[in-house]
């Protein structure tokens, strides 16, 4: 009986330990996302909503061509919501729409040079915030090790 309790505790501890790195990784990613979003909001430049950013990133990070209908299906939102997001992205010259010459009922979403530059900027900010977060984590580990010793 005592052995069974010990085994259950050991199993529970192992499960908790296996989740810890995932939680730590998720915490780091969420921190990087927060720091990136704060940097984007603070700087001079377009301030996109979550939906607009999702549409933008989907168009720029996935190679295949995109349509309003396809984006709506992929992001699980209505076509009018995609249209509003694309209206804003078009105002900022981050994306543009063009009628598909092969199927005039379909609207294609095209990338722009300004949009590509904006994506480079996002990547740069994320790289910087990720590097800072990594250094902060290393510093905390060193301090914790010193205290434990």
Q: In short, what is this structure?
A:
It contains 5 helices and 3 strands; from the N terminus they run H-H-E-H-H-E-E-H. It is mainly alpha-helical and 149 residues long.
Structural account:
By secondary structure, the protein is mainly alpha-helical. The chain has a single domain, classed as Orthogonal Bundle (Arc Repressor Mutant, subunit A). The protein is 74% helix and 8% strand. It contains 5 helices and 3 strands. The protein has helices at residues 2-42, 50-61, 68-75, 79-91, 113-148; strands spanning 66-67, 95-99, 107-111. The chain has a 3-stranded antiparallel β-sheet. A hairpin with a 7-residue loop joins strand 2 (95-99) and strand 3 (107-111). Helix 1 crosses helix 5 (113-148) and helix 3 (68-75) packs across helix 4 (79-91). The longest helix has 41 residues, at 2-42. The radius of gyration is 22 Å and the shape is elongated. The mean pLDDT is 83. Pfam families: MarR_2. InterPro entries: HTH_MarR-typ (IPR000835), MarR/SlyA-like (IPR039422), WH-like_DNA-bd_sf (IPR036388), WH_DNA-bd_sf (IPR036390). This is MarR family transcriptional regulator. Keywords: DNA-binding, Transcription, Transcription regulation. Residues 1-149 form the HTH marR-type domain.
């Amino acid at each position: 009986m005592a052995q069974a309790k010990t085994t259950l505790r050991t199993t529970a501890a192992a499960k908790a330990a296996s989740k810890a790195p995932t939680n730590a990784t998720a915490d780091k990613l969420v921190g990087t996302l927060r720091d990136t979003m704060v940097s984007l909001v603070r700087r001079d430049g377009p301030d996109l909503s979550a939906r607009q950013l999702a549409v933008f990133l989907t168009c720029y990070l996935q190679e295949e061509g995109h349509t309003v209908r396809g984006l709506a299906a992929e992001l699980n939102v209505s076509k009018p919501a995609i249209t509003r997001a694309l209206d804003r992205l078009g105002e900022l010259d981050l994306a543009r729409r063009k009628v598909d010459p092969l199927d005039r009922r379909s609207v294609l979403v095209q990338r722009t040079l300004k949009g590509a530059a904006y994506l480079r900027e996002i990547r740069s900010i994320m790289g910087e915030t990720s590097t800072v977060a990594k250094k902060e984590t290393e510093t905390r580990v060193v301090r914790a090790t010193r205290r434990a010793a």
